Amino acid sequence: MDQGEQLHERLLGDLRRYAAGRRKDIDRGAETRELAGLLVEKYGYGLARALELYGDVAGVRVPSLYAELNKVVLEIDPESDVHRARRWDARPAGLDLPGKGSIAE
Fold first, then answer.
1. C-alpha span between 63 and 60 (Å, rounded)
2. CA dist 26 to 1, 53, 56, Å?
3. CA-CA distances (angstroms) from residue 45 to 29, 77, 99, 105?
């Protein structure tokens, strides 16, 4: 296994650990599936882009992380495609936080 593949595996493991933390937050009622899915997606996009940049700088071909990222996000939020479309349709997109003193006020 070359360095690009090793980095891919380590980043994928890191993504899965992060997603496991979000799942725990869902289970204890601290986050919705929608929010947890968004957080995992954005975190994963950063990891995937970093892997691409490594490949560019090192001049090597690296496996893409995006396909695995999509699977992990769907495990967290099975309706992530619908939620993503709703966010894109909302202008400006924001968080709808319950209770007084919300950020939107």
1. 10
2. 35, 32, 36
3. 25, 16, 31, 30
Give the Å distances, CA to CA, from 42 to 3, 15, 19, 45.
24, 11, 11, 5
Give me the residue spans of the domains in the chain. Answer: 3-89
Name the residue among 98, 83, 101 with its Cα closest to residue 29: 98
**Measured between alpha carbons, how far is 61 from 63 in angstroms, rounded to an integer?**
7
Question: Rounded to two decimals, what is the model's pTM?
Answer: 0.87
Q: Who's near 77: CB < 8 A, 6+ residues apart?
A: 33, 34, 36, 37, 38, 83
pLDDT in tens, 30-51: 999 999 999 999 999 999 999 9
Per-residue model confidence as pLDDT tens digits over 6-20 = 999 999 999 999 999
- Asked if omega into 92 is within 30° of 0 (cis), the reply is yes
Which candidate, 77, 73, 85, 89, places its Cα nearest to that of 41? 73
